[in-house]
C-alpha cells in the first residue's frame, strides 16, 4: 500500500482549512512539484502558477468556496486552485482534449466562479457577483484576484471606479510580481513598485489606523473625523494609495509567500466595512530556478524537458518571427513605421523591432482598445503604425477599429497573429471571429498569407499600397513549406489553380493545405484568396463560371467570407450549387489544432468527403 501524499489527501478546500502553517508549506512544496511535472508534460502557464501557490492556499484557508466566490483574472494562474477543489486526479489532463481546462470554467466545477482567459475582467465580474449576492440576500465574500499585468487594462479601472462605494463584501487581491508576460509597463507599474519598496512605511500607517480603530470610544470618532476631513494629518495617515482615493481600504504590501500574513490580511479584509484591496508581492516562477531567472520565458510554455529547461520564448520558425523580421527590414528604410504591442512583445515577434528601434516601439500594456486608438492617432499624425495583436485579443477593440480607425480613414495596419484555431488554450483564445468582425468595418481590407514569403509581401503591400485600415492575418506556429505557392498579384488578390474541373473550391489561409490534399483525391479547381476582403467583382465573375462551388473557411460561418460570397452570388442570380464548410458553433474547445480540424470537418479527409457530395 502506498502512502498518500499530503496533496492527495486534499479532497476539497475543507481539507486545506484543517492544516497548520507548517503543513501548508509542506503542501506548497508538493504543489510546486506537481505544477512543474504537469506543465512540463502538457505545456501551460508555469511561472504565473508557481508564484501563486501560497496565495491560493491562503485563499482556501480563509474563504469558503463556492459560498465565497474567487474570480481569477485571466485565469492562467488557477492550477493550484483546481488541485485543491477536487480536480487533482484530473490535473494530468490539463489543456488536453477532453481534459481540464487551463482556465477557470464554471461548467467544470462549482468552485470556478466565472469564465476567464482575457485579462482585466475580474473586478467587474466580482462586483457583479457581489451585487447579485447583496440583492438576493446571499451570504459570502467575492474575491477578485488580479495581477499587476492585468491591472494595466482599462477595464480594471472602469471597475475600480465603479466599486469603491459599494457595501463591503468585495475584496480585490492585487497579485503584484512586477511582471506581465514581460516586465509590467506604465506609470501604475512604477507606482506599485514604489509601494513595494516601502513596506515599513505602509505598515506604520496601517498600524496607526488600526490602533485608532481599536481605541475605545474616541478612536473610532477620531478616525471618522479624519477620514472625512481634508487635513494634512488625514493625508499622512489615510491617504496612502490611489486605491483609497477610490473608496477602497488598502492592505499591503504583503509578502505573497508568507501564508500567515496572507491569511491575517484576508481575515482583516473580511471584517472591514468597505471594499478592500490587498496588495500582495509575489515572485513569478517561484520554486523553479530556471523560471525564477527568466519568468517571461516560462509564462506560457509548450511541453519541455525538465533537465534542459527553457522552452523557446518565441519560436524562430514561426509566422510571428517572420512578421517581426519583415517589419524590421521595412522600418530600416522608413522612419515613419512604428510598432505597437499590447503586452505581447515576444509572442508577436516584435522583440526584433524593439531591439532595433526602441524609440518607435510601443508596449502599451494589456490595453488593446487604447492601442487601436493610439495607432489611429499616430496614423493621423503622419506615421505608419502597425499593431501586432492576437486575433482573440483584438476582439476587444472592435469599436475603436470602427470609430477611431475606419470612420476617419486612418491608415493602421493590423498584424493579426494566432488567426484561426489555436489549440490548447481552447475556447477563450480561438482566433476564429476576427474575419466576421472585420468584414463589417467600412473600408477594411484583409489579407491572409499562407507562408512567410507571402506574409512579407502582404505586409509591404499593406503599409505602402493601401489607404485606410487593413489587416493581415496568420496562424499560430509555422508555415507549411510544402505548399506550391508562387507570388500573388496582390492588387488582384488571388491565385487560381486549374485542373479543368467544373467544380471550384474557394478558400484562404492555413486550411488551403487541407484543401490541396483533398483535391488530390477529388479533383477540383482552387481559387485561393490572398486578399480575402473585399471580394472583388472579378473574383465573383470567376466563381460564376463554375457549376459547383465549395467554400471552405477556418472561421465562423456567420459574417465570414464564405457566407458573404454565397449571398453576393445569389444576388447576382447564380444558378449553380454553393456549399459552405466553415465553423458553425463558435465555441471550439481545447484540443490539438489538428484534432480541432478533424472535429470541425476541416481536415483533408473530411474535405475529401465534402467534395464528394
Ligand atoms: C485582453 C488580453 N490581452 C492579452 C492577454 C495575454 N496575456 C495573458 S496573461 C498576460 C500577462 C498577465 O500578467 P499578470 O496579470 O500580472 O499575471 P502574471 O502572469 O504576472 O501572474 C497577458 C498579457 C490576455 N490574456 N488578455
Ligand atoms: C494566458 C494567455 O492569454 C496567454 O498567455 C496565451 O495563453 C498565450 O498563448 P500562446 O501560447 O499562443 O502565445
Ligand atoms: Mg504579474
UniProtKB/TrEMBL annotation:
Keywords: Isoprene biosynthesis, Magnesium, Metal-binding, Thiamine biosynthesis, Thiamine pyrophosphate, Transferase
Residues bound to Mg(2+): 148, 177
Matching SUPFAM superfamilies: Thiamin diphosphate-binding fold (THDP-binding), TK C-terminal domain-like
Pfam families named in the record: DXP_synthase_N (PF13292), Transket_pyr (PF02779), Transketolase_C (PF02780)
Major enzyme class: transferase
Cofactor: Mg(2+); thiamine diphosphate
Pathway this chain belongs to: Metabolic intermediate biosynthesis; 1-deoxy-D-xylulose 5-phosphate biosynthesis; 1-deoxy-D-xylulose 5-phosphate from D-glyceraldehyde 3-phosphate and pyruvate: step 1/1
Entry-linked PROSITE patterns: TRANSKETOLASE_1
Domain of life: Bacteria
Any single Gene Ontology cellular-component annotation: cytosol
EC code: 2.2.1.7
Every Transketolase-like pyrimidine-binding domain range: 317-481
Cofactor: binding details: Binds 1 Mg(2+) ion per subunit. Binds 1 thiamine pyrophosphate per subunit.
Assigned protein family: Belongs to the transketolase family. DXPS subfamily.
Quaternary assembly: Homodimer.
Function: Catalyzes the acyloin condensation reaction between C atoms 2 and 3 of pyruvate and glyceraldehyde 3-phosphate to yield 1-deoxy-D-xylulose-5-phosphate (DXP).
Protein name listed in UniProt: 1-deoxy-D-xylulose-5-phosphate synthase
Gene: dxs
Amino acid at each position: 500500500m502506498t502512502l498518500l501524499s499530503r496533496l492527495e489527501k486534499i479532497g476539497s478546500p475543507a481539507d486545506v482549512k484543517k492544516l497548520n502553517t507548517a503543513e501548508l508549506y509542506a503542501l506548497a512544496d508538493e504543489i510546486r512539484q506537481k505544477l512543474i511535472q504537469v506543465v512540463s508534460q502538457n505545456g501551460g502557464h508555469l511561472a504565473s502558477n508557481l508564484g501563486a501557490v501560497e496565495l491560493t492556499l491562503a485563499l482556501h484557508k480563509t474563504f469558503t468556496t463556492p459560498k465565497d466566490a474567487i474570480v481569477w483574472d485571466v485565469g492562467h494562474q488557477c492550477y493550484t486552485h483546481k488541485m485543491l477543489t477536487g480536480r487533482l486526479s484530473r490535473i494530468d489532463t490539463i489543456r488536453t482534449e477532453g481534459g481540464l481546462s487551463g482556465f477557470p470554467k464554471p461548467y467544470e466545477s462549482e468552485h470556478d466562479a466565472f469564465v476567464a482567459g482575457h485579462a482585466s475582467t475580474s473586478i467587474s465580474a466580482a462586483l457583479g457577483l457581489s451585487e447579485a449576492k447583496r440583492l438576493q440576500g446571499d451570504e459570502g465574500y467575492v474575491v477578485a484576484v488580479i495581477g499587476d499585468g492585468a491591472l494595466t487594462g482599462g477595464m480594471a479601472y472602469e471597475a475600480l471606479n465603479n466599486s469603491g462605494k459599494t457595501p463591503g463584501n468585495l475584496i480585490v487581491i492585487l497579485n503584484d510580481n512586477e511582471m506581465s508576460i514581460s516586465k509590467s509597463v506604465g506609470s501604475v507599474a512604477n507606482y506599485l513598485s514604489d509601494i513595494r519598496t516601502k513596506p515599513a512605511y505602509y505598515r506604520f500607517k496601517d498600524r496607526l489606523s488600526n490602533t485608532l480603530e481599536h481605541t475605545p470610544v474616541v478612536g473610532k470618532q477620531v478616525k471618522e473625523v479624519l477620514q472625512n476631513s481634508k487635513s494634512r494629518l488625514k493625508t499622512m495617515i489615510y491617504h496612502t494609495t490611489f486605491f483609497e482615493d477610490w473608496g477602497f481600504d488598502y492592505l499591503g504590501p504583503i509578502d505573497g509567500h508568507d501564508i500567515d500574513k496572507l491569511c491575517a490580511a484576508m481575515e482583516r479584509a473580511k471584517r472591514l466595512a468597505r471594499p478592500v484591496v490587498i496588495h500582495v508581492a509575489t515572485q513569478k516562477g517561484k520554486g523553479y530556478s530556471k523560471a525564477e531567472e527568466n519568468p517571461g520565458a516560462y509564462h506560457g510554455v509548450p511541453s519541455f524537458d525538465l533537465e534542459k529547461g527553457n522552452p523557446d520564448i518565441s519560436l524562430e520558425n514561426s509566422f510571428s518571427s517572420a512578421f517581426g523580421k519583415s517589419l524590421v527590414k521595412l522600418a530600416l528604410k522608413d522612419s515613419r513605421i512604428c510598432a505597437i504591442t499590447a503586452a505581447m512583445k515576444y509572442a508577436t515577434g516584435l522583440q526584433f523591432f524593439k531591439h532595433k528601434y526602441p524609440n518607435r516601439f510601443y508596449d502599451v500594456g494589456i490595453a488593446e482598445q487604447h492601442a487601436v486608438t493610439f495607432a489611429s492617432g499616430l496614423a493621423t499624425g503622419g506615421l505608419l503604425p502597425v499593431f501586432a495583436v492576437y486575433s482573440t485579443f483584438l476582439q476587444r477593440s472592435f469599436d475603436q477599429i470602427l470609430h477611431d480607425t475606419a470612420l476617419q480613414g486612418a491608415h493602421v495596419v493590423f498584424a493579426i497573429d494566432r488567426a484561426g484555431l489555436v489549440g490548447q488554450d481552447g475556447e477563450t483564445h480561438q482566433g476564429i471571429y476576427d474575419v466576421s468582425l472585420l468584414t463589417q468595418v467600412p473600408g477594411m481590407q484583409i489579407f491572409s498569407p499562407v507562408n512567410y514569403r507571402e506574409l512579407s509581401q502582404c505586409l509591404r503591400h499593406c503599409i505602402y499600397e493601401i489607404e485606410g485600415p487593413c489587416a493581415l492575418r496568420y496562424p499560430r506556429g509555422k508555415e507549411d513549406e510544402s505548399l506550391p505557392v508562387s507570388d500573388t498579384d496582390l492588387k488582384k488578390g488571388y491565385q487560381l489553380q486549374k485542373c479543368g474541373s467544373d467544380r471550384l473550391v474557394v478558400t484562404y489561409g492555413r486550411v488551403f493545405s487541407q484543401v490541396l490534399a483533398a483535391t488530390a483525391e477529388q479533383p477540383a479547381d482552387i481559387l485561393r484568396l490572398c486578399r480575402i476582403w473585399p471580394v472583388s467583382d472579378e473574383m465573383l465573375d470567376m466563381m460564376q463560371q463554375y457549376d459547383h462551388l465549395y467554400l471552405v473557411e477556418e472561421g465562423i460561418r456567420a459574417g465570414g467570407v464564405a457566407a458573404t460570397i454565397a449571398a453576393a452570388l445569389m444576388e447576382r442570380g447564380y444558378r449553380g450549387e454553393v456549399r459552405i464548410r466553415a465553423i458553425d458553433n463558435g465555441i471550439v474547445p481545447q484540443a490539438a489544432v489538428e484534432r480541432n480540424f478533424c472535429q470541425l470537418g476541416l481536415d483533408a479527409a473530411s474535405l475529401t468527403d465534402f467534395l464528394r457530395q
